[in-house]
TrEMBL record:
Domain called Rhodanese: residue spans: 51-140
Species of origin: Bathymodiolus thermophilus thioautotrophic gill symbiont
Protein name: Rhodanese domain-containing protein
Keyword Transmembrane belongs to the record: yes
Residues annotated as transmembrane: 12-32
Domain of life, per lineage: Bacteria
Matching Pfam families: Rhodanese (PF00581)
Amino acid sequence: MELLEFLLNDDQIFTTITLFVLIALLIGNIIADKLKKYEDVDVNNAVTLMDEKNLIVLDVREVKEYQKDGYIPNAIHIPLSQVKNKLDTLDSSKKVLVYCRSGSRSAHISGLLTRNGFEQVYNLKGGISAWKKANLPIKTK
């Protein structure tokens, strides 16, 4: 009872509201992570996936990034803004490894793919930045 009185005290109400908002955000984040239908993979697991012939490597960075920073060999380049309109050009029966610069935009596209019938979708954690840091091959035009 004393805890409740303390939390609802006029001097503590802002702190109490902040605490409840942070707890709600944490719970929401945990639930969202459990509900996502794609898998985040590190560069080592991405390389293992690439050993399979049934894999599409999808680069969703913008054209300038793709040209400036290079790309993972055999990647298909479809900028993020165009992926939704080009879903029918991708084979939904294949595994898809999606990457961007850091892994954030590719996570968004990984979710889009799973919502549109792609069942085996992987997001490269850290994106091409992690790929380069691991000294893995990059192609440039």
